[in-house]
Structures are given as C-alpha cells and as structure tokens.
C-alpha cells in the first residue's frame, strides 16, 4: 500500500512539549535569517506553503488522524504570515479537523507587531492558544550584537499584546549568548523584562556554536569570545533567582550541561541548589568537554 506524503521540506523543529501534536507545514525556513548564532534553518530559504498544499496535507491528516486535538504549525516563524492568511489556515483547520482543541506555532517578536490586539483576539477565538518565541535575551547590547532585529522594549510591548488577547506564550532564553563577561548582565536584564510579562514556560537552551552560523567565523577571527561554562551556570542561576513571576522553567535541553526543570516560585530553591551543586562538583574543563561533544541540536 502506498502512503500519501505530507509536504515537509527543510528542517522541521518543534518544542519538546509539542511531541504529541499533529505537525502541519505552513511555512519553511525563516523570514529573518540574520541572527548571528543561528544555524537551525541553514540552507532553507523562507517559503510560504500555498493554501492548496496546506489543504492537501489536511486531507491526508484528516484520514489518518481524524480526531487530532492539537496541531503545531511548522516553520521557523509561521506567525510572520498576515492576519488574513492565518485566519484562512485556521478556517481550514476547523474544516478538516473538527475535534481540534488548539493550535500553536513559533513566532519572532517582530511578527506580532503588524497584528492588532483585536486581530490577536480573533485568532485566539479560532483556537490559536499558544506561541513559542525565541526571545534569546532582553539584554539590548546582546540583541544588537547578535542582529536579532528588536529591542527589550519591543519584547515588552509586543508580548503585552498577547497577554491582552489571552494567547499564551513560551519563551526561549539562550544562555551564554552575550559572550564572556556578559552572563550576569544578560540574566539581570532579561529577568527585569520577563517579570513584567506572563510567559507560561521559559525554555533555557545554552549557546552551542556550529560552523553554519556566522558567529562561528567571529570566534575564529577573535571577534567573539565564548562565555565560559561556569559563567553560564552563574548566568542561569541569576536568571532563575531574579524571576518573581509564576513560570515553568524547562532547562533540560541537550545543550545544557546541568539539566534543570521546575515551577517557580515553588521550586526556586531546589533549582538554585542544582546549580550550586554542579558548580561545586564540576570543573570548567569537564563542562566544556560535554559541550564539545554536542554535534547537533
Ligand atoms: S534564531 Fe530564529 S529568527 Fe533568528 S535566524 Fe534563526 S530561526 Fe530566524
């Protein structure tokens, strides 16, 4: 029997907590493609899937997963699509998957800007209940150095719109991004911003530089010095310690030398203890050795 193929192209990423979600490609690659540290969508130009292609995939999915309850739309930042386009896709999702309870996707901070709170509320009404945002840090000098294309003030203004519209959001924090000597500054600036918002999850990932990124060349040219591993632990500890909001910390990504998870504020003391224990137990060389063994995320 021949199985029909879905239209996945390029790299497909999804957060770990979307493991049971039905994946559907509506874009591939990234609209921005300029962050210095990024190698995730290397070689994949941005492409918006034609609606006919999305509908074809939905026909296949409705045959094999007719009772799918959660759909995750793939691509680096499908939320870059216009409000009207996202509404068209939401209508198709409802038509083909009547049991769907919610859908989500990745977004850049800047993707929220063209959408009004009213439009965001309408998307929420159409079952868009959460988005995942690669914030990385809210430390302005680091955001600029890494060419993220937004500032801390944009993070506050755009994510506040999601709060108002009732769309949940999860953030990604990139530990070590500031480089040597910037760890604590990055953590303090980020905690200050995040304490004014209401993220559901903060995913902590630790910077691991791969040859496909332009930051790799900066390291070779001596223009960027990587943050030492112990400094990274101090950075993460500072971030967690300074957070005053209720938020889940998910820091068990392969790139983290010390895996931590917990619900703040209840687990704060336990998470901080994990960092203290690791700093007492492991040397810089041991931790670096672990990082050098990471070949892929
Ligand atoms: S980090 Fe995200 S926004 Fe930046 S280039 Fe990579 S995929 Fe695009």
TrEMBL record:
Its cofactor is [4Fe-4S] cluster. InterPro entries: Aldolase_TIM, BchE-like, Elp3/MiaA/NifB-like_rSAM, rSAM, rSAM_sf. SMART domains: Elp3 (SM00729). Residues 16-246 form the Radical SAM core domain. It holds the Pfam family Radical_SAM. Keywords: Iron, Iron-sulfur, Metal-binding, S-adenosyl-L-methionine. This is Radical SAM protein. It comes from Xylanibacter rodentium.
């Amino acid at each position: 029997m021949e199985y029909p193929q879905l239209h996945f192209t390029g790299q497909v990423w999804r957060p770990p907590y979307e493991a049971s979600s039905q994946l559907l490609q509506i874009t591939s690659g990234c609209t921005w493609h300029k962050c210095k540290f990024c190698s995730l969508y290397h070689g994949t130009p941005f492409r918006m899937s034609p609606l006919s292609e999305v509908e074809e995939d939905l026909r296949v999915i409705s045959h094999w997963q007719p009772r799918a309850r959660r759909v995750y739309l793939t691509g680096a930042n499908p939320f870059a699509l216009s409000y009207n386009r996202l509404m068209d896709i939401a209508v198709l999702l409802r038509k083909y998957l009547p049991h769907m309870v919610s859908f989500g996707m990745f977004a850049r901070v800047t993707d929220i800007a063209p959408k009004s709170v009213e439009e965001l509320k309408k998307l929420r009404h159409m079952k868009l209940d959460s988005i995942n945002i690669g914030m990385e840090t809210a430390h302005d000098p680091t955001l600029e150095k890494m060419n993220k294309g937004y500032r801390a003030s944009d993070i506050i203004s755009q994510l506040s719109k999601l709060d108002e519209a009732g769309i949940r959001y999860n953030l990604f924090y990139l530990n070590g991004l500031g480089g040597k000597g910037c760890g604590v500054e990055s953590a303090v600036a980020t905690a200050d911003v995040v304490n004014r918002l209401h993220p559901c999850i903060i995913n902590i990932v630790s910077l691991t530089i791969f040859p496909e990124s332009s930051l790799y060349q900066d390291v070779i040219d001596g223009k960027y010095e990587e943050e030492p591993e112990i400094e990274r632990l101090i950075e993460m500890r500072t971030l967690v310690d300074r957070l005053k909001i209720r938020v889940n910390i998910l820091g068990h990504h392969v790139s983290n030398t010390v895996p931590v998870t917990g619900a703040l504020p209840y687990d704060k003391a336990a998470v901080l203890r994990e960092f203290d224990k690791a700093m007492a137990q492991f040397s810089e060389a041991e931790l670096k050795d672990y990082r050098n063994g990471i070949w892929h995320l």
